[in-house]
Amino acid sequence: MDNILVAHDGSASAKKALLEAISLAEKTGAKITVISVVPVICFAEAGIDCETVMNIYRAEASGILEAVRAILKERGLEAQTIILEGNPADVIVDFARDNNISLIVVGSTGKDATQRTLLGSVSSKIAVNAPCSVLIVR
Asked: What is the pLDDT of residue 68?
């Protein structure tokens, strides 16, 4: 196992996934990459500016990854952290495919039930479509 990808949305489940990935990296020497995916959701019909919504999501993702870097630093690890945009499951699977990822680690549930209703279970979609092994952490 050389490269571990952690998908992090700020949920408690994602934090558990991160801690599991850290433990695996400490045991195997694998590199960790943590991504947070900003979903492309627009509420123009409701009179809300799409760019404003995206900026809010980007700021939230930035804060999430800042907290992730702090956890990694506490454990003496460094990791690449990246914010991407799109359908979370598709973006995570594509990133894994394009970056020679050995293992994807995700939480079993995300933080947003509304998003899950709109997009389906991200972890399930990743498990079905990933080009590598997937560890779903409860």
From this structure: 97
